[in-house]
Specification:
This protein is mainly alpha-helical. It is built from eight helices and no strands.
Length: 144
């Protein structure tokens, strides 16, 4: 695919954010329009759309990186994104568990709390897993 061809698969941000994409983009734009555009165009439409790693893998890596940064709101988004991209709950748990030897227990415990809250929210809403609508398992995400 050349730099000028649109991707044939759904954009990474479409899968990660699902129906919450307009709300998330509005939130970022309200913080600063340039910031919102940079995140959308560079992070999601350039870096995330690189083909070598599966979106599920990218999202699991993002989860571990966000644990290292101590960023619960963004971690919540990317836990949802990992699940939307086809990761199982067990895979998310293992990605978070990999943080223990490198980041320590406090950050990892905080990450598991974010996961627990997300899973409880899904149970309250009557959903146990986003319904896959394609190869990437694109379901509805809740965003940040």
């Amino acid at each position: 695919m050349s730099d000028h061809e649109p991707p044939t698969d759904p954009r990474a941000r479409d899968v990660i954010f699902g129906t919450q994409q307009p709300r998330i983009q509005q939130r970022l734009d309200e913080l600063d329009p340039d910031l919102g555009r940079y995140i959308r165009d560079f992070a999601y439409d350039t870096v995330y759309d690189r083909p070598a790693l599966a979106l599920k893998t990218k999202e699991l890596i993002a989860c571990a990186l966000l644990v290292s940064l101590g960023s619960p709101p963004e971690l919540r988004t990317h836990i949802r994104g990992a699940l939307n991209a086809g990761a199982s709950e067990a895979e998310v748990r293992d990605a978070l568990m990999m943080c223990v030897p490198y980041l320590g227990f406090p950050r990892t415990v905080a990450a598991f709390e974010v996961l627990r809250q997300h899973l409880q929210g899904r149970e309250r809403n009557g959903t146990t897993r986003p319904a896959p609508t394609g190869e990437a398992g694109q379901g509805e995400g809740e965003g940040q």
